[in-house]
From TrEMBL:
Residues 7-62 form the HTH lacI-type domain. This is LacI family DNA-binding transcriptional regulator. Signal peptide: none annotated. It holds the Pfam family Peripla_BP_3. The keyword Transcription applies. Keywords: DNA-binding, Repressor, Transcription, Transcription regulation. GO terms for molecular function: DNA binding.
Length: 334
């Protein structure tokens, strides 16, 4: 078995002190007035022998692991998957690594994962919070662990967050349906008290009220099976004779598509909150309320890095505008 190379081995081979090698490897050569020629000689030798620093020892010495915990609702959902990919790329450029996992909106699982990541001393957290974790997040903040929430926030916890304007996005979608001339416009949402779901419901309600239209709302249980949801949506659309439906999430919209196929009924006009690769491939292509994914990721990282560097001067609450991407599914055919 090949022996692990230590800093002392490098120092011995080059005839310099361990302290000098350590300063060079920790980018302190100029600060310690170590010559450029010696610095180059050490770095060239390190590269030649393939020396890798002991990250555990380094973290114990600096108090930093250079790891960020990313806890999201569902990594398989394109919205969260794309944001995770962007965050991972951006933090890597800053010398950090990401460890991430999905909670599936399970409060107990979320608490367990936060505890596990905290035990591993991640430097900070990026979290899409499930309901009922206010105390867990508050404990992190009280322990001076940097936390940034996104997609939704916890009204009773004062911390940084980055969200989309869910209210305006749902309002714009509802207005679009009404301006197209649809008469019976429904909303499919979830039984959830999360802020993004409340705001989407409120946006739909305001849009319907503006046009003095009857509201039709169907809420699906978070733990409902797909088969149950498919049957519930069939009953909701057909019994209410809906000619347009706003789905509060992309996965609810996909369930709606499956419902139409299973029960062989003509789907009404559709708009989904959050895009999905399926929506462009579907015939007709599905109109979506699109969140600014790259901008969300940029703001999350900028806020977290300032907190990690101790430069954050205040708590940031950012709300970014959505875009209604109009496709064929919401256009009323004359």
């Amino acid at each position: 078995m090949k022996k692990r190379i230590l800093i002392s081995d490098i120092a011995k081979a080059l005839g310099v002190s361990v302290t000098t090698v350590s300063f060079i490897l920790n980018d302190k050569a100029k600060e310690k007035r170590i010559s450029e020629s010696l610095t180059k000689r050490v770095l060239d030798y390190v590269k030649k022998v393939g020396y890798k620093p002991n990250e555990l020892a380094k973290s114990l010495r600096t108090g930093k692991t250079k790891i960020i915990g990313l806890i999201i609702e569902d990594i398989s959902n394109p919205f969260f998957g794309n944001i995770a990919r962007l965050i991972e790329t951006k933090v890597y450029e800053q010398g950090y690594r990401i460890i991430y996992c999905s909670t599936n909106n399970d409060s107990e699982k979320t608490k367990e994962l936060i505890g596990m990541f905290n035990d591993r001393q991640v430097d900070g957290f990026i979290i899409t919070p499930s309901e009922g974790i206010e105390e867990t997040i508050s404990n992190l903040i009280q322990s001076n662990v940097p936390v940034v929430l996104f997609d939704r926030y916890l009204p009773d916890v004062e911390t940084d967050y980055v969200i989309a304007d869910n209210f305006q996005g749902a309002f714009d979608a509802t207005v679009h349906f009404n301006e197209q001339g649809y008469k019976r416009i429904g909303l499919v949402s979830l039984y959830s008290d999360q802020t993004q779901m409340r705001d989407r419901l409120d946006g739909y309600m305001k849009g319907m009220d503006q046009f003095k239209k009857q509201v039709y709302i169907k809420k699906i249980q978070l733990d409902a099976s797909e088969a149950e949801a498919i049957d519930d949506l069939h009953e909701f659309v057909v019994d209410n004779r809906l000619d347009a439906v706003l789905f509060a999430t992309n996965y609810l919209a996909i369930t709606g598509l499956k419902s139409g196929k299973k029960h062989n009924y003509k789907l009404p006009a559709l708009i989904a909150f959050d895009d999905h690769t399926v929506f462009k491939l579907h015939e007709p292509a599905i109109t979506v309320v699109s969140q600014p994914i790259e901008e969300i990721a940029d703001h999350i990282i900028n806020i977290l890095l300032l907190k990690l560097q101790g430069k954050a001067k205040s708590i940031k609450h950012l709300t970014l505008p959505c875009e209604l991407k109009i496709r064929e599914s919401s256009i009323l055919k004359q």
